[in-house]
Amino acid sequence: MSILLVTSSPRGAASHSTHVATDLAHKLVAADPSNTLVVRDLVANPLPHIDPDYSTGIYTPAEARTPRQAEVVGVSDAVLDEVFAADTIILATGFINFNISSTLKSWVDHVARSGKTFSYGEGGPKGLVSGKKVYIVLASGGIYSEGAAVQMDHAVPYLRSVLGFLGMTDVEVIRVEGVGMGADAVAAALAKATAKVDAIAAANTDQAAA
């Protein structure tokens, strides 16, 4: 199994989403010696925001692209290669202004490409990225999985929608929530998330042994 880990928190080593997602990735690798891991750190190596050269370059034949178009489309192609090569994708993000990080949004913009990851036909849009398991690790200062604040969570609904549009419908969410509510809340949130990670890893270990 090939695992792609995409991290995007600006908090560096203090990031709870990065910590939990990395723990999950390493435990999935350990579940089967043949598993491999590719890491894309969107903070250390941010993707360029899409611009006119990208928007025109993706629809221009490769031999006719300007050097700048070739550069930006090449970046997008590399991202797509990672996605298509992966059996499992782990997306880690903090909850920033009620949505995902801007760095992860740029990753989505490079992944969502007509003719590559989705197409339109007589039956409407069709996702072209299939057979992937996706884990979303979302860290938030407050509680958004239940209660009055649920309506403010635009991160999980957005990711589920765009991933589903591209064909990735097997999506599981691991929340690390309430980390802005004091040390005890942080400990409880991490314990709950780690328990879920361990359960996922154990299931994969059992599957590998079967």
From TrEMBL:
UniProt keyword list: Flavoprotein, FMN, NAD, Oxidoreductase
Q: What class of enzyme is it?
A: oxidoreductase
Which reaction equation describes what this protein catalyses? 2 a quinone + NADH + H(+) = 2 a 1,4-benzosemiquinone + NAD(+); N,N-dimethyl-1,4-phenylenediamine + anthranilate + 2 NAD(+) = 2-(4-dimethylaminophenyl)diazenylbenzoate + 2 NADH + 2 H(+)
* GO molecular function list: electron transfer activity; FMN binding; oxidoreductase activity, acting on NAD(P)H as acceptor; oxidoreductase activity, acting on NAD(P)H, quinone or similar compound as acceptor
Taking every annotated instance into account, which residue ranges of this chain make up the domain Flavodoxin-like fold? 1-199
User: What are its cofactors?
Assistant: FMN
Residue numbers binding FMN = 9, 15-17
Query: How is the cofactor bound, as the UniProt entry phrases it?
Result: Binds 1 FMN per subunit.
EC number from the UniProt entry:
1.6.5.-, 1.7.1.17
Give the UniProt family note. Answer: Belongs to the azoreductase type 1 family.
PANTHER family reported for this sequence: FMN-DEPENDENT NADH-AZOREDUCTASE 1, FMN-DEPENDENT NADH:QUINONE OXIDOREDUCTASE
Described by its record, this protein's role is as follows: Also exhibits azoreductase activity. Catalyzes the reductive cleavage of the azo bond in aromatic azo compounds to the corresponding amines.
On assembly, the entry states: Homodimer.
Q: What is this protein called?
A: FMN dependent NADH:quinone oxidoreductase
